[in-house]
Amino acid sequence: MTYCSSIATTTMAEIHSDIVQTHILTRLDGPTLASFSSASSDLHTICKEEIHWKNLCNSNWPSTKDPSLQQIISQFPSGHRSFFSDSYPTVRRLHHRRRKNTTLSEIIPQTSELISAVDIHYENRTIYSKVDKTAIGSIWCRSTPFRIDLLGVKEVVRTPLKFDFEDETCTARTEKNMTLSWIVIDPVKKRTVNLSSLRPVEIRQQLKGEINIHFATIIGDGIDGRFVKCGVDVTCERVKDDDVLNITEIGMQVEDMEGNILNGNDSLEIFEEAMESKRIKATIGEEKKMYNMFMLWRDYFIHDQL
Q1: 88 near 158, Cβ under 8 Å?
Q2: Of 69, 72, 238, 254, which residue is least crowded by CB atoms under 10 Å?
Q3: 86 CB contacts (<8 Å, ≥6 apart)?
Q4: Where are the beta strands (DSSP E) in the chain?
């Protein structure tokens, strides 16, 4: 005796667009949403809708919910989709050399302020989110060591991280659970770049109850042995009579091979080149590997200069 059976199949074209938008697209991350849009012309139209990319930006970087930043993003060529495509992948080994036949004024952003969108997560929970506007128009700012600090002298951020005198325990928890994103935005050219490694590249624990967490992106191509480091420092201090750690410092600066902090002009040139560079999604652990190599190169470079 022979049995015959049939399996009903449903194509994407037969699914109502409301179901696609509310139950399918809302579950996709950015790269998957971009790939999904190439499946058909109808899906391409649906996936281009601003609301999907706005939701992705808001879920990845809560700082993008800031009204002032929302206004700036709305002026990007494709709104949140442009912002996401610039900010999601990391910069990897950017070719950094002054471009020929260009002046400094053509390279540096023609804006009076640089905008930073910063988000820190611990165990997928947002513990800090801020949009910072840094004035960059003054001659003093462009000619002196350039650093952006987000916290005031007495300002602290409470974290779920508990101090443990066992170095490896506390360090391992921090490395596994803390992530940081630092997106630099040029509001005039409508370009952005994420200059932070997603996870820490180095963690140093002090006996007095202080932890220094370092995030970094290494920029350069090795020509003439020149690289720079875009580093973000997060300092956590133990609360008195408590094991909980508070963040007391969040700052970003660019350093050269000698360990010198670049001035405003040179830092802005790095940011501008990074915004225009090709993005490649870094693999897990790649930023830390590049950072360790940079520190070795720095030691050799400094030794050769002595």
Answers
A1: no
A2: 238
A3: 191, 192, 193, 275, 279
A4: 113-122, 125-135, 147-149, 157-162, 178-186, 191-194, 202-206, 210-220, 227-238, 244-255
Alpha carbon 276 to its chain's center: 15
Tokens of 39: 């499946």
Q: Give yes or no for residue 182 having a pLDDT over 70.
A: yes
Residues 6+ apart with CB under 8 A from 65: 58
Predicted model pTM:
0.82
Collapsing DSSP to helix, strand or coil, 143 comes out as: helix
Q: Which residue has the tokens 């596994």?
A: 176
Q: What are the backbone dihedrals phi and psi of residue 71, each rounded to the nearest 5 degrees, phi first?
A: -65, -40
C-alpha dihedral, 234 to 240 to 244 to 246, nearest 10°:
-30
Contact 91, 279 (CB under 8 A): yes
Gap between the terminal Cα atoms of the chain: 90
Q: Which residues on adjacent β-strands are paired with residue 62?
A: none
Amino acid at residue number 206: Q
Task: Using CB atoms within 10 Å of the CB of residue 89, give its burial: 0 to 12 exposed, 13 to 18 middle, 19+ buried.
Answer: middle
The kind and range of the H/E element at 257 are none
Task: Give the contacts of 229 (CB within 8 A, at least 6 positions apart).
Answer: 216, 217, 218, 219, 254, 255, 291, 294
